[in-house]
Design brief:
The protein has 409 residues and is an alpha/beta fold. 37% of the residues lie in helices and 16% in strands. The two termini are 32 Å apart.
Amino acid sequence: MPRSTLRLPRTRRIVGVVVLALVAAVMAPFTTARADGFYDPPSSVSAAPGTVLKAESMTFYLDPLRTIRSTARATRVMYATRDRSGVAVAVTGTVLVPTVPWIGVGQRPVIGYAAGTQGMGDQCAPSRQLAAGSEYEGAFVSGLLARGYAVAMTDYQGLGTPGTHTYMVREAQAHAVLDMVRAAQRLPGTGLPTAGPVMLAGYSQGGGASAAAAELAPTYAPELKLRGAVAGAVPAELGAVAAHLDGSLYSAFALYAVAGQSAAYGLDLDSFLNARGTSVIDAVKGECVGQSIALHAFTRSSDLTKDGRSLTELAAAEPFRSIIADQRIGRLKPAVPVLLTHSVLDDVIPYAVGRGLAHDWCARGANVAFSANVTPTHVGGAVPSFAKEYAFLEARVAGLPQVSDCWWL
């Protein structure tokens, strides 16, 4: 199986990834939509999930100056999927296929890749940032391509396309990931097998989307030949995550969830938010992640509500309690081996939340490998997560069994 052609020492690779992420965070707010209206959906969507509605070629750049382009064949697609209530919607994404022949076992696998938090503004969509060279996960995606995998990377509902991005809405994100794979397999001219092996991967928001997709795949997309799923730093229990984020450097992530979930459930926030709260939520809907962190760091949710209650207090009462409960990951058993990764020193998603998901899945009889690390911060924990991901994916392609860690968890 092809291996990455990158030979830089490990430390230099890590530094390179961090620098790329920082540059991308600065550049992302300036990424603009294409003038040809590709992201404008049809007036109605009635096609089956995974149907390609339109497609166009693009170039995937690895740097914001657009001096380094990926050799992969890149196609921007719009495809049909389903929102959390089952209504057909149009979502965009990117299909990336290596130009070299697959020389691994069997047919070329497709990785349903779920991006981490990008922001809420349409300019933050991964397909737009891949084309602009500002996608902070571009280096990791490039590593998958170097190993010969095809990558199907969704933009998620409302990110790029009209409407509010349904941030951390479990079913909507899972559907978008699985239907992106379906779209990749149906896209003409890629050379991808229509019923080849599939694996899922993601970290942070993407870890939640990958984990949820692994849970829903047996019922929502049973025809996909899913071999395994990697999910890093999974926000499996949003109540605990929100309590941890409130007033922290990453307060914006909780604000994203309020905006995305209220939109998905048709919840009017006017009766809960004060004037400042309404202004802040409206603002984050147009921002990318680096911008939001800078503008809304250390914001306390109690300063945004009419009665001074915090998000944690609101989450304990309806309608928020039921909405948050709907997003719980770990109540369904994945039918394939899964790898969960998490840093003990994660400063965004508590380690206990990730380990708790492993316990929940093990209790349901799933085959779970759990990889903890002690790399500081949420961003830092992504590096060992991706290193483990590569080994996990190669083992699944080779047909090797996974020894479950459930006996000691």
